[in-house]
Write a structure and sequence with these properties.
Its EC number is 2.6.1.76. Pfam families: Aminotran_3. The chain is an alpha/beta fold. The protein has 12 helices and 15 strands. A hairpin with a 5-residue loop joins strand 14 (about 380) and strand 15 (about 385-390). The two termini are about 40 Å apart. The structure holds 4'-deoxy-4'-aminopyridoxal-5'-phosphate.
Length: about 425
């Protein structure tokens, strides 16, 4: 007789699901997730960067319940609603205006890849060019357009056929580390006899969240922007994972001072795990006619409600940002301490999107599994899952952070001896 497992019906899911923590999750609060047996796990995963404000934050739960109880509209395609207006007002007041940014806002669909698709399509439409450049180890999503700019052989093979109209360039630190990284590209672009088509856009993550926590240097990002401006190439920053405070500022590119032409956001936008994506567009690029790009789930009002509440609660002044930066410094210090115990282990990433690359490529996966046994949800990053990736809620307390670091240290000692 086949043995029944705790999963039962859950085992009918497709093979492509890759998260295999052997528990059934039931409840969550802040930085702690609890399974159906009542076992608690500290969360260094944050729903892949969705739960930036922690799970079920009461300041977001209350307005959501009030909204639903009031009988207000839930689904509204791209129609006007009071909840959408309030979100847009809050986004302008707490995000765009204080940073002196001028963008038109588009809700491109429910999730990150919808934002990337809209950015790629719009760049092609307004420039009249086809080609998009991206970077090795980039991750931009799983639909055909976003996958075509994702620099990961295994994931690209999921399409079954070659993906066209894109090229991949080396990302910052794989090169010399000097500021002239783009000279070779410039030589190609400037050579009118080369016959190489000018790209419509370059898409970049400031920190490669899935691709190994490679963090671009600010001067490299500025050189990239400079190149784009000189050749009239649109610069798209994919802030789906690194945005919404993850690196210590609302946008991950603030530190570098660049101003992208298009910005992709999703994951933590609603602050509550409700699906939401947003594409910020330089006003003069707002060139789609009504209906040229649309979709059914472009206005999820419960997400607008929690999203607006999160903006008011966390971004009205610098208090939260300062706290995140303090936690990020603690995380970095803790990771450095652990890494120092293992020859050639390197700390990577930025803000609360940081981790350790171990020279033994299999180590991170084993440490993550051992951490789970010790009560910590933590994942890996990189083409060979070679980086242990710490991505806790931004609201994590100092105490919880230290507890998680302690678990990683013990798990690493267990695995690596
Ligand atoms: N861009 C980046 C940088 C991401 O990290 C992700 C998701 N991990 C995506 C795009 C795609 O988002 P989604 O999975 O919501 O489609």
């Amino acid at each position: 007789m086949p043995q029944t497992t705790i999963f039962d019906e859950l085992e009918s899911q497709v093979r492509s699901y890759c998260r295999n923590w052997p528990v059934v999750l039931a409840t969550a609060a802040g930085s702690v997730v609890t399974d159906e047996n009542g076992t608690e796990y500290l969360d260094f995963f944050a729903g892949a960067g969705v739960m930036n404000y922690g799970h079920n934050h009461p300041d977001l739960t209350e307005p959501l319940i009030d909204y639903l109880r009031s009988g207000a509209i839930v689904h509204s395609l791209d129609m006007h609603t009071a909840a959408k207006r309030e979100f847009l007002e809050s986004f302008r007041e707490y995000v765009l205006t204080p940073r002196d940014l001028d963008y038109r806002v588009m809700f491109p669909g429910p999730t990150g890849t919808n934002s990337v698709e809209s950015a790629l399509k719009l760049a092609r439409k307004v420039t009249g060019r086809q080609h998009i450049l991206s970077f090795t180890n980039a991750f931009h999503g799983m639909t055909l357009g976003s996958l075509s700019v994702t620099g990961n052989a295994m994931k690209r093979q999921g399409a079954g056929v070659p993906l066209t109209n894109t090229s991949t360039m080396p990302y910052d630190q794989y090169l010399s580390g000097v500021a002239d990284d783009f000279q070779w590209l410039e030589r190609v672009l400037a050579d009118s006899g080369s016959g190489v088509d000018l790209p419509a856009a370059i898409i970049v993550e400031t920190v490669q969240g899935e691709g190994g926590l490679n963090a671009a240097r600010p001067e490299w990002l500025r050189a990239l922007q400079d190149l784009c401006r000189r050749y009239d190439i649109l610069l798209i920053v994919d802030d789906v994972q690194a945005g919404v405070g993850r690196t210590g500022t609302y946008f991950s590119f603030e530190e570098s001072g660049i101003v992208p032409d298009i910005v992709c956001l999703s994951k933590a936008l609603s602050g509550y795990g409700l699906p939401m994506a947003l594409t910020l567009i330089r006003p003069d690029l707002d060139q789609w006619e009504p209906g040229e790009h649309n979709g059914t789930f472009r206005g999820h009002n419960p997400a607008f409600v929690t999203g607006a509440a999160a903006l008011k609660r966390f971004w009205a002044d610098d208090t939260f940002q300062n706290e995140v930066q303090a936690r990020a410094a603690e995380l970095r210090e803790g990771l450095e301490k652990i890494a120092s115990g293992y020859p050639d282990a390197v700390v990577k990433g930025r803000g609360l999107l940081a981790g350790i690359e171990f020279p033994d490529k299999a180590a991170a996966t084993r440490i993550a599994a051992e951490s789970f046994r010790r009560g910590l949800l933590v994942e890996t990053s990189g083409p060979d899952s070679e980086v242990l990736k710490a991505m806790p809620p931004l609201t994590i307390t100092s105490q919880e952070l230290q507890r998680g670091l302690g678990i990683i240290a013990d798990a690493a000692a267990e695995v690596l001896g």
